[in-house]
Design goal:
CATH class of the largest domain: Mainly Beta
CATH architecture of the largest domain: Sandwich
Strand content: 15-25%
Number of domains: 2
Strand order of the largest sheet: 8-9-1-10-3-6-11
Number of helices: 12
Order of helices and strands: HEEEEEEEEEEHEHHHHHHHHHH
Radius of gyration: 22 Å
CATH topology of the largest domain: Jelly Rolls
Number of strands: 11
Structural class: alpha+beta
Largest sheet: 7 strands, mixed
Distance between the termini: 54 Å
C-alpha cells in the first residue's frame, strides 16, 4: 500500500480542477501581443506560428482560413478564436482576396498596433499562450486546430464583457493596465476553453476531451485532487457510478489512455515540475506522489522519461540557467 504524506489534505477538502492544475503545471499564460486595424480590402497571412494564438475581434468582421480546414470561417464582432499553432493562418477582408499570395503592406503604430490601409473598419486584438516548452505538448496535443467562440453563443455575455474591458484597458493606458490586460487575456483564454467544452459536438483530444465527458470528468477530478492515493480501477469506477469494465473502456476511448496510466502520467508530470523547481529530496517527492520507496519512484520515472530523477534534475536546471527570457511578441 502506498504511503500518504501527513501534509496532504483529505480528498473531500481539495478542489478537483484538472484544467487549472494543468494550466498551472505548464505555467500557461495568455500574453496580449498587439492589435490590428484595417480598412478596405486586405489580407494578412501568418506562417505556422508554433504557438497557441488567441484572437479577439473587437470591431468589424473578416474571413479566416486555416491549412487543413475545408472552408473559410466568417468571424464577426465579439468572436474569439484560438488556434493551436500547428497550421498556417490567413485573415482577410473578402474571399476574393484569397488569390493574393502576399500580405497587404502594413505599418506599425503606437501600442504594438499593426495598420493595414488608412481606414478603421476592423480592429482585432491578439496574443499567444506562453507555456513551459518542456511540457508544452500536454496542452498543444489536446487542442483542435481551431476553436471559434461566436458572439452569438451561450457564453457570449461573459466573453463580450471581457473583450470590452480588454479593449478599454489596452487603449486607455491607465495605471495598472499591463496587469489588467494580462489578467483579462488569461480569462478570455480560459473562457474560450470552457465554452468549447460546453459546445455541442466540440472536438478535443486527451484530457481536454475527458473534461467534457460527464462520467470521465469526475474521475479526472478525483485523480487530480489526490494523485498520491493508491487508486484502483474498481474504486474509480465505483466513485463515478459505473461498472469497472464500462468505465475502463469509456475512459480509454475518451482520454486515449487507461485510467491508471493517466494517473501515472500525471504523477510523472508533477515529479518533473518538483525536480526542476524545488530542492526537495527525491525520496520526499516519491512519498508525496504515493510511492512506497524512492527506488519504486525512480524506476517509474526512468520508464517514463528515460533518465533517473537526479540526472533529470541536473539537466533541467542546466537548461533553465541557459534559457533566454522570451520577448513579448507582436501578434500581427
Amino acid at each position: 500500500m502506498a504511503i500518504r504524506p501527513d501534509n496532504l489534505r483529505d480528498r473531500s477538502e481539495m478542489p478537483a480542477d484538472p484544467l487549472s492544475d494543468i494550466l498551472d503545471l505548464l505555467d500557461a499564460r495568455c500574453v496580449l501581443g498587439g492589435g490590428m486595424i484595417a480598412g478596405g480590402k486586405w489580407i494578412r497571412r501568418f506562417a505556422q506560428p508554433n504557438a497557441i494564438k488567441v484572437l479577439a475581434l473587437v470591431e468589424g468582421s473578416c474571413w479566416l482560413t486555416l491549412d487543413g480546414l475545408p472552408v473559410p470561417v466568417h468571424v464577426e464582432t465579439g468572436d474569439v478564436i484560438v488556434v493551436n499553432g500547428k497550421h498556417a493562418l490567413t485573415l482577410l477582408s473578402d474571399l476574393d482576396m484569397l488569390g493574393h499570395i502576399e500580405s497587404t503592406p502594413s505599418i506599425r503604430t503606437v501600442n504594438d498596433i499593426t495598420q493595414l490601409g488608412e481606414a478603421r473598419e476592423f480592429f482585432m486584438l491578439g496574443g499567444h499562450v506562453g507555456v513551459d516548452p518542456v511540457r508544452q505538448s500536454l496542452l498543444l496535443d489536446v487542442l483542435p486546430p481551431l476553436i471559434h467562440i461566436r458572439a452569438s453563443s451561450d457564453s457570449a455575455r461573459v466573453m463580450r464583457w471581457l473583450l470590452d474591458r480588454l479593449a478599454r484597458e489596452w487603449q486607455a493606458g491607465r495605471p495598472g493596465s499591463a496587469t489588467a490586460t494580462a489578467q483579462l487575456a488569461q480569462l478570455i483564454f480560459v473562457e474560450a476553453l470552457r465554452a468549447h467544452l460546453d459546445a455541442a459536438g466540440a472536438t478535443a483530444h486527451g484530457w481536454l476531451n475527458g473534461l467534457g465527458d460527464e462520467h470521465i470528468a469526475p474521475a479526472l477530478g478525483l485523480i487530480h485532487a489526490d494523485p498520491a492515493r493508491p487508486w484502483t480501477l474498481a474504486e474509480l469506477a465505483r466513485e463515478v457510478a459505473m461498472s469497472r469494465t464500462s468505465f475502463a473502456l469509456r475512459f480509454k476511448k475518451v482520454v486515449g489512455v487507461a485510467p491508471l496510466t493517466y494517473l501515472t502520467q500525471w504523477r510523472m508530470h508533477l515529479a518533473e515540475r518538483d525536480l526542476t523547481h524545488s530542492d526537495d529530496p527525491v525520496s520526499g517527492i516519491a512519498y508525496r506522489l504515493g510511492y512506497t520507496s524512492e527506488s519504486a519512484f525512480s524506476n517509474a520515472f526512468k520508464r517514463k522519461t528515460g533518465v533517473a530523477p537526479r540526472r533529470y534534475r541536473s539537466a533541467a536546471r542546466e537548461l533553465a540557467a541557459a534559457a533566454v527570457p522570451a520577448e513579448r511578441l507582436n501578434a500581427f
